[in-house]
Each structure stands twice: as structure tokens, then as C-alpha cells.
Design goal:
- InterPro entries: 6-blade_b-propeller_TolB-like.
- This is NHL repeat-containing protein.
- The protein has one domain: Thrombin, subunit H, CATH 2.40.10.500.
- 0% of the residues lie in helices and 38% in strands.
- It is globular and about 30 Å long.
């Protein structure tokens, strides 16, 4: 891994480029060095590709809730390449 002298500032908040209580990251070296960030208090998992200025919401981001498109205080995420899936620890929903 190589650190850049100048990067993107990320401030606390609930906008797409902001994080609030990030609890975990997963770096996927197989997918163009994509970083998955668990943004716990914004109830979402975001995906950030190397050399891109914006991230994408991978899961959640639809407010707190029990629906399949909602999370409550997620804690961790991993990528399962063998099964082509990602696994989320959704603490608030106990799933």
C-alpha cells in the first residue's frame, strides 16, 4: 500500500461523501483496490474505488429499519469471492 501526500477530506455527517462513526473497512485488492467502509451511524456500507472522487452506497442508506434494503448500526463487512457475495454484520437487526 502506498500513501498519497494529498487525499480527499472526509468530514462527519450524513451526506454521501461524509462518514459518521465508521467502524470497519475491507480492502479488496482483487477489485482494483476497492475499499468498503462500514458507516455505522449512517446505517450503510459504502464502496470507494481507488482514484475515484465519489463513493457508492453498496447496502443500506435508506434510514434505520428491518427491511432488506435497510441496516441498523452495521459493524463489519467482508467479501466472499468464492460465492460472489458480501457479508454484513447488521448489529441493530441482529442479522
Amino acid at each position: 500500500m502506498k500513501w498519497k501526500e494529498f487525499g480527499i477530506d472526509i468530514a462527519e455527517g450524513n451526506e454521501l461523501r461524509s462518514l459518521k462513526s465508521p467502524s470497519s473497512i475491507f480492502i479488496d485488492n482483487d477489485d482494483d483496490k476497492t475499499i468498503y467502509i462500514v458507516d455505522s451511524e449512517n446505517d450503510r456500507i459504502i464502496k470507494w474505488k481507488l482514484n475515484e472522487n465519489d463513493n457508492k452506497t453498496l447496502a443500506g442508506g435508506n434510514g434505520k429499519g428491518k427491511q432488506m434494503n435497510q441496516l441498523i448500526y452495521p459493524k463489519d463487512v467482508i467479501i466472499d469471492r468464492e460465492n460472489d457475495s458480501f457479508i454484513i454484520s447488521d448489529y441493530g437487526n441482529k442479522r
